[in-house]
Amino acid sequence: MKAFEWTGVFPALTTKFNSQEELDLPLFGKNLQAQVAGGVNGIILGGSLGEASTITEGEKESLVKFSLEQLEGAIPVVLNIAEGSTREAVRQAELAQAWGADGLMLLPPMRYKADDRETTAFFRSVAQSTDLPIMLYNNPVDYKIEITLEMFESLIEEKNITAVKESTRDVSNVTRLVNRFGNRLKILCGVDTLALEELVLGADGWVAGLVCAFPAETVTIYRLVKAGKIAEALKIYRWFLPLLELDLHPKLVQYIKLAEQATGIGSEHVRAPRLILEGAERARILKIIQDGIAKRPQL
């Protein structure tokens, strides 16, 4: 894989397990092929949706190498880094490069609410440790640390910090970033329920969640917006919204895995402490998914 553009749809892929909580690479491969057939532009491994906090270093290596082998350079393979210490984040970046990953998604320090100076130093240390292109994940809602415009101003001195996953929940931030930095930073929407809005405002891509179960619909919305066919995109997006809202819940992993199972490209197996949904909650979520499948639009 040569240098790539942070544009288009990048699924934050779920990590597939069997009933014994072991990595299920054949099922992961089935979903990966569905993503490719749907037209995605890259994949992200080991994110929040990939159960980052429960997968081992060896499993990350297996996922990266398996994906590279399956994809044969067709689209980039990006590995997420979510670590508590700068030293460990740097080590993970070096491992990702050694394993052959094409890029990194980088979260701020985990478990400690670093201030602006500390957060900037953390990102800079990782960037300087690798040649890989980096997308910074700006999600102050979930991770309590915001990457401000002033911080980006400093961080773009690092040439390989080239994109931002925009998850502030403030769609105006897309315009602020474009006004300040032009095309220097690619902007990818990281919130499924705001994707159409942010793409219309000029976001370059979409780090998507429900794409794991509905790849073709996700890619179609992206392509229609970029072709200026907003009314056509909106029709699909309105159908999609009840499903996209599953991405906003603390149990997004369980909800999206249930959707993958319902569409035939995944299973609902998760790794503890997460548990498979049951009872009224499972019935309620499954109804949302089945209603969506029943009304699935013709593309």
Can you tell me about this structure?
The chain has helices at 25-38, 57-71, 86-99, 116-128, 140-143, 149-155, 172-181, 195-200, 215-226, 230-244, 252-262, 279-294, and strands spanning 8-11, 43-45, 77-81, 103-106, 134-138, 161-166, 186-189, 205-208. It is α/β, with parallel strands linked by helices and 299 residues long. An 8-stranded parallel sheet has the order 1-8-7-6-5-4-3-2. β2 (43-45), α2 and β3 (77-81) form a beta-alpha-beta unit. α4 (116-128) packs parallel to α6 (149-155), α9 (215-226) runs antiparallel to α10 (230-244) and α11 (252-262) crosses α12 (279-294). The radius of gyration is 18 Å and the shape is globular. GO terms for molecular function: 4-hydroxy-tetrahydrodipicolinate synthase activity.
Write down how many β-strands occur, each being a DSSP E stretch of 2 or more residues.
8
Quaternary organisation of the protein chains: single chain
Radius of gyration: 18 Å
CATH architectural label: Alpha-Beta Barrel
What is the CATH topology classification name? TIM Barrel
The SSE order reads EHEHEHEHEHHEHEHEHHHH
Major sheet: order of its strands?
A: 1-8-7-6-5-4-3-2
| Number of structurally distinct domains | 1
Shape category: globular
Average pLDDT rating: 96
The profile of the biggest β sheet is: 8 strands, parallel
CATH superfamily: Aldolase class I
Secondary structure class reads alpha/beta
How far apart, in Å, are the first and last alpha carbons? 30 Å
**Number of separate helices:** 12
- Uncertain runs are none
Classified by CATH, the class is: Alpha Beta
What is the helix fraction of residues, given as a range?
40-55%
Tell me the strand percentage band. Answer: 5-15%
